[in-house]
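Reviewer 2 asked us to include a model.

Predict the structure of this chain.
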Amino acid sequence: MARASGYVAGAILVAGLGTAVPAAAQDGWYTQGDFAPAARVEIVIANDLNEDRKDAPIVIRRDQLPMLADIQELTATLVDPEGQSRPEPTPELLARQGPHERRGEANGRAIDYQFDDLDRDGIWDELFFVADLKAGEKKRFYIYRGFQQRGWNPHRTHAAVGSYMRHAVPFWESEHVGWKLWFPTDIDIYAKRKAMLMSNRLYMGNLDGYGVAAENPDYGADIQSVDDSFGGGGIGVFEGDALNRPRFTPTADLEHRFNAGQQSDTRYSFEVLVNGPLRSMVRVKTMNWNTGQGRYEVEQTYTAYAGQNYSTAEVRFPVWEPGPQGADFAVGVRRRPGQNFERRGPNWVVTTAPEALRNPDDVEGLQQQAPILYAGTALIVPEGDHGAYQFEPTRGENHVFRIPAQTDRTYRYMLAAGWSEGEVLKTPEAFADYVAASARSYASPPRLDGVREERKP
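Predicted model (structure tokens):
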């Protein structure tokens, strides 16, 4: 089964499987129109942090829900029993949305979810949803069993691989922030003025990320210049004191910041793993990477989450063949040009600066926009990986963590971005506080605290 991506739920406590619900409790069972299920699974999610979480990602593995291992997606309805029940829809809404619109509810509110098949074997690997959790809370949800075809789920995230300015580019985004790989290893960031999804407009219309606001200011703009830096997030290896990266090899086209031929230099492949509604994931494979000292292949899975300004990444090295000097993992972000605000924790770094929204390739100066107060980028690595921060002055100036080689050759990190023009995190200080809170959540994800299967007598 695929390794969980992003937030990983903890240990399971299973109790009372198959027990009947007393008659006195039956009035609390969820209904929706004529849907009145007779079986449900109670799940309890624990927030071990002494702080509230909004849109917290919840991941439950298939082996933690053995009673749902063999399930058809339309036979599950996820319900927050404390949520506000929907009224019966109006005739106008039904005329627009048709028979798959939710009907009037009682005893809770159905919420969106996704069963994600991460290893592509046709069987779901993870149940994913998001929830607001109070500090120290243990919150109940129910998965009701029974076939029903109601419940449109508008997407709050998106992922795609599109032909963008004549080359394949992966995109993944939440409502607030998006990421893309113009260069195949180092990330561009774009941010929105209003909460929306718009990467499909970029790649389908092949619109310039810096000029797209001319079509609609709410679309926002690119806020990350990459060039030869780590950009909004990139990886490499330390071989001794040398920092080597996949697109800067002995045979690379250094003038244009790209690799050379696909057979003679590093090559890449991209695929969409999951596309919403609440998280979206792309997988990037880096192959035939020869540094001149060692040989490597990498798989990275990037994930965007509904309601969040961060993306997580999971890294696996199927091939790890360093030279006699050995190797450590490197992950970094570009120090913002003109940086005027920086904050660091033991395992994270924030960099912000005023930003002139202008394509660095616009040598004629045709794109003129008013400077914005700040654009910010952040990097978080797991505390347990013992990453050592260092400033790397070469190739655009970068904030980098050097992480000792792991036995299983797997690594994780989190990237975040914000800007003064968005609906959230409008100051560098607010952005830095968000990054610090996200680092705490990264270290202590919501966990599955209990499961119980129930049936009406």
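The helical segments are 91-97, 199-205, 428-443. Residues 1-26 have pLDDT under 50 and may be disordered. We have added this to the supplementary material.
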